[in-house]
Amino acid sequence: MVPFVLFGLDKAAVKVQSPLHADGMYTEVINEKFHQPTLSFGELVGFYLSGEKPKGVLEIEEMLKVGTTLTGIGELTLDTDGTVTLRPPSDNSPYFLSLTDFENLRNESCNIAVFWKVLAVV
């Protein structure tokens, strides 16, 4: 995925770099299609003998729609040309892009932390 630019209501722009390195769901599924395989008799016998059973391929198309509110948590930099850029933190801190607001994202992260703490105690 290539970097993209987000525009605010006041026409302020923020360039988002490395969106695939971000945690969180920030795209919406716009198309989902399942393709069943067409296999020959020889392929069927081969799969039967190997124990594999191909079901097919699931094709999912996702995109960030125009007008979507996006919350980003990462490192903000101001480039020499005046461009504000959101990128993964240089100190390896978490990098988030999410469709939810900051409070929900924080609560979600706290719940995950509590889960792992409880699991570590058990």
TrEMBL record:
GO terms for cellular component: membrane. Keywords: Membrane, Metal-binding, Transferase, Transmembrane, Transmembrane helix, Ubl conjugation pathway, Zinc, Zinc-finger. It holds the Pfam family GIDE. It is a multi-pass membrane protein. The keyword Disulfide bond does not apply. It is found in: Membrane. Its EC number is 2.3.2.27. Residues 2-121 form the E3 Ubiquitin ligase MUL1-like domain. This is RING-type E3 ubiquitin transferase.
